[in-house]
Write a structure and sequence with these properties.
This protein is an alpha/beta fold. It is 50% helix and 12% strand. The chain is built from 13 helices and seven strands. Helix 9 links the parallel strand 6 and strand 7. It is globular.
């Protein structure tokens, strides 16, 4: 618990406001550990958030998202903009900001005082990665970062929840990748605002053409992260999406919806964890599960009894 000796609630919040890297690192570590001090600090800082523009970068594993973010960070730093990066890996057994796979490329920016990078695994978050990433993003926002990149590995439900706090979502796809083809089929195409692809233009366009309701048509940019090819064009599309949201008065609406969605996502994760603990600790509730498993009791009847006992919600 060195964190408590090094920082008080007030000094940690003050350090974050000042953009102090040590305070930032400590605050995000506390967030990762679901430490009560983290909640107090974020509560203090929250009224000062809302200035950072959050760009979510998602897509199947191994398509070069970290390399792309590294190149984008270099591009926006040339514009003298301060940057935070949160990389989220639900499958990672590592902690303390471990760099996984091609994330080592992000190390190019570690010595830049205006760039703060943190990699987060799923260890022990009471409310799941959605909660941890939201809290970390708010800390970086309060620290004055103008842009925050939020990378998720994969395109499953958990990653969709994490990416739900982004203002603009970039989907990265790679040709010949079964995962990329699967992403196209899995309804993930409803999520992105900008698409970075090497090829696959025809496949992507055909899927996008099915959604005729969207006022913003996600542009597709042929991008090569390692060479930096068309990365400025990709960033230009992100900026155009931001201008579209602001021009249509949609940015504030999107943020309000995103924050409400995050509240529900975190509350759901916490409720599920509480429910699992309650059932595990209660012989009567375990008996109900056993009856469902032996087909003596139907699942919905078990749900009603469990909800009534755990949450005092009758008839659910």
């Amino acid at each position: 618990m060195a964190a408590r000796r090094d920082f008080t609630r007030e000094s940690l919040a003050a350090g974050v406001r000042a953009g102090d890297r040590r305070a930032l690192a400590r605050a995000i570590t506390l967030v990762e550990n679901s430490d009560p001090l983290a909640y107090e600090v974020v509560r203090d800082l929250y009224p000062e958030t809302g200035s950072a523009y959050v760009v979510g970068v998602t897509g199947p594993p191994g398509v070069g998202k970290s390399s792309l973010i590294s190149t984008l960070v270099r591009h926006v730093r040339e514009q003298n903009r301060s940057v935070g990066v949160i990389t989220v890996d639900p499958s990672s057994p590592f902690s303390q900001g471990a760099l996984l796979g091609d994330r080592i490329r992000l190390a190019d920016h570690f010595l830049d005082p205006e760039v703060f990078i943190r990699s987060m695994g799923s260890r022990g978050h009471l409310g799941g990665l959605a909660e941890a990433s939201l809290q970390a993003m708010l800390v970086l926002d309060a620290a004055g970062k103008e842009l925050v990149f939020l990378e998720t590995v994969g395109t499953g439900q958990g990653e969709v929840e994490v990416i739900g706090i982004a203002d603009t979502v970039v989907l990265v796809l790679m040709p010949g990748s079964g995962d990329s083809i699967q992403a196209l089929k899995a309804g993930i195409m409803e999520i992105p605002d900008v698409i970075a692809a090497k090829t696959m233009l025809n496949e992507v366009r055909s899927v996008l053409s099915l959604d005729k309701e969207r006022a913003w048509k996600p542009p597709i940019v042929l991008t090569e992260a390692l060479s930096g090819e068309n990365v400025p064009e990709l960033w230009e599309k992100v900026e155009q999406h931001r201008a579209f949201l602001e021009g249509e008065g949609l940015l504030e609406q999107r943020r309000r919806e995103n924050l409400a969605g995050e509240v529900f996502a975190v509350a759901s994760a916490r409720a599920k964890a509480h429910l699992e603990r309650a059932v595990g600790d209660d012989p009567e509730l375990r008996r109900l599960l056993g009856e469902v498993q032996s087909r003596k009791l139907d699942p919905l009847s078990a749900v009603r009894e469990i909800m009534d006992k755990v949450f005092k919600v009758s008839g659910a």
